[in-house]
Specification:
alpha+beta; Beta-lactamase; Alpha-Beta Plaits; six-stranded antiparallel beta sheet; four-stranded antiparallel beta sheet; about 20% strand
């Protein structure tokens, strides 16, 4: 399916509906910090708990793509062709058209710099023939690498049944080290904070790259069932640390938590009692724990929100609205959530900050409007109606 370029920009837009609310309950986090040179475990909290991987899945998609390049079955100068199912992948996406040809190098940038789901499906179908076959290869590769509590059902990490797609903090550390060791020449793609596709700038999601000195990759992930996930690598004084967080409550606390974990890793000296990743692997005869579902533990995904809210504007992708809402809470307080808005044959997403009193909500909007920014006050009754409308829209899908 890999062909020379002949662009055919046809946009097919289909969005899946996830009704997002807010709740003050904290997600149940699993994490690990590993010395990237030795593979020694510096610190671990529930490292073998199974959690949906979300977009961390794209690390394995990239691993297989890098394998194809290394084996010479694929070249950077080749093009992938976008299939119909790729163009219909849920946001985040870059808007591929059926039959559009995308250079392999651009596909890697979109996959890792933008976390584009349409590109992930396109890569899977071009390499594997189908996303299902590619996912089987992903799982086989994971087990070959020693990721024994990992299974993949998609190339993107979009939601799948819990028992069909899961990973652990330990397994993601294994994958991160494999990417560093096996494909050092391609690792630079994990440090992208943005790139340009078809003349349009595309921004990334990985805040740790700008937040932590020495951070140089890897990947973020989010779905309601997984919570906020992050795999990060950083170097300091010729020492590398790899940190993994699964199931954090918010994007901002995920970043703050990773800063703490990396600092802990660099400050801790290894001893004779230090364990390695193989040493904390679960007993193969032990029963697997259930896959965690953090939907009701993650504030942006809870069942509802009380009080007033402010509408901060509409975006094409849910993740972009979630980021804006999260940034709003850092400035204004309250709780972040998003709302689907249908129209024109597609679904876009509103960024909301809720859980506010009326005076605060009106003050926020006056200040934003004075600065030329979009803002609307939503009363408690309006917020309830928004949730009811979103539930009806979900049932209609």
């Amino acid at each position: 399916m890999i062909r020379r370029r002949r662009p055919c920009p046809i946009l097919a837009l289909i969005a899946a509906i996830l009704v997002l609310g807010a709740s003050p309950v904290r997600a149940l986090e699993t994490s690990i910090v590993v010395d990237g040179t030795l593979g020694a475990v510096v610190q671990a909290t529930h490292p073998n708990r199974r959690v949906p991987p979300a977009s961390l899945t794209k690390m394995m998609t990239a691993y297989i793509l890098f394998e194809e390049l290394s084996l010479g079955r694929l070249r950077m100068t080749d093009d992938f062709i976008a299939t119909k199912s790729a163009t219909q992948a849920d946001p985040v996406r870059i808007g591929l058209g059926v039959g559009e040809l995308v250079p392999v190098k651009d596909a890697i940038k979109a996959l890792l710099g933008r976390s584009a789901n349409d590109v992930a499906v396109m890569i899977a179908e071009n390499i594997g023939g189908s996303e299902e076959a590619f996912a089987e290869r992903m799982t086989e590769t994971a087990h070959r690498l020693g990721m024994n509590r990992t299974r993949f059902a998609t190339a993107s990490g979009l939601p799948a049944p819990l028992e069909e797609q899961y990973t652990t903090a330990r397994d993601m550390a294994v994958l991160a080290l494999a990417l560093l060791d096996d494909f050092p020449g391609f690792y630079r793609f994990f440090s992208l904070t943005g790139y340009t596709f078809k003349g349009t700038p595309q921004s990334g999601h990985n805040a740790i790259l700008n937040r932590y000195p020495g951070a140089d990759g890897l990947k973020t992930g989010f779905t309601c069932a997984s919570g906020y996930n992050l795999v990060a690598s950083a170097t300091h004084h010729d020492r590398r640390m790899v940190g993994v967080i699964l199931g954090n409550a918010t994007g901002s606390t995920r970043t703050n938590r990773m800063v703490t974990l990396l600092n802990t890793g660099f400050a801790k000296e290894l001893t004779e009692k230090t364990q390695f990743l193989d040493g904390i692997a679960p007993d193969p005869d032990s029963p697997d724990p259930p896959v965690a579902d953090n939907t009701n533990q993650t504030p942006i995904c809870g069942s509802g929100v009380a009080g007033y809210a402010v509408d901060l504007g509409i975006n094409q992708s849910q993740s972009r609205s979630a980021d804006i809402a999260e940034q709003g809470t850092q400035r204004y307080g309250g709780m972040a959530f998003t709302m689907p808005r249908p129209g024109g044959g597609t679904v876009r997403w509103k960024a909301y900050v809720g859980g506010l009193d009326g005076t605060t909500a009106r003050k926020i909007c006056r200040a934003r409007q004075a600065a030329g920014l979009w803002c609307l006050v939503r009363t408690p009754a309006m917020v309830r109606a928004d949730f009811q409308a979103a539930a009806r829209l979900r049932r209609a899908q």
